[in-house]
């Protein structure tokens, strides 16, 4: 199995060396399951975006469509749009 080097450098060699896990955004160790398959990576509930749903969300969306308005939330495709719109807050 491929083993990456313990440190990573920025081209040119002028930047300080970072551990590879920091340089590529990782942190945990990877160990394949006993049967050779990849282990599932579970994310905590607070990091998971919930699908927009709820009465207030749909009401607000209907109002905006009726007035042919767009919001920053929609244009930016914000993953938290459901949380704000459920509280009837739109920007």
Write the layout of secondary structure elements.
Blueprint: E1 7-8, E2 18-19, H1 20-23, H2 55-66, H3 72-75, H4 81-86
Antiparallel strand pairs: 1-2
Description of the molecule:
By secondary structure, the protein is mainly alpha-helical. The protein has a domain at 50-86. 29% of the residues lie in helices and 4% in strands. The chain has a two-stranded antiparallel ribbon with strand order 1-2.
Number of helices: 4
Helix content: 25-40%
Distance between the termini: 49 Å
What is the arithmetic mean of pLDDT?
74
Class computed from helices, strands and strand pairing: mainly alpha
Major sheet strand order:
1-2
Gross morphology is elongated
Overall number of strands: 2
**Main sheet properties:** 2 strands, antiparallel
Portion of residues in beta strands equals under 5%
Rg of Cα set: 22 Å
Element pattern in H and E: EEHHHH
Low-confidence stretches: none
Name its key features.
elongated; two-stranded antiparallel ribbon; mainly alpha; about 30% helix; 2 strands; 4 helices; single chain; about 90 residues
In short:
This protein has about 90 residues and is mostly helical.
């Amino acid at each position: 199995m491929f083993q990456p080097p313990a440190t990573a450098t920025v081209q040119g060699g002028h930047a300080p060396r970072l551990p590879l896990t920091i340089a590529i955004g990782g942190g945990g160790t990877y160990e394949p399951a006993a049967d050779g398959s990849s282990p599932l990576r579970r994310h905590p509930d607070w990091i998971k975006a919930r699908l927009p749903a709820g009465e207030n969300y749909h009401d607000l969306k209907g109002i905006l469509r009726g007035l042919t308005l767009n919001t920053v939330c929609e244009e930016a495709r914000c993953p938290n749009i459901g949380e704000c719109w459920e509280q009837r807050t739109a920007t």
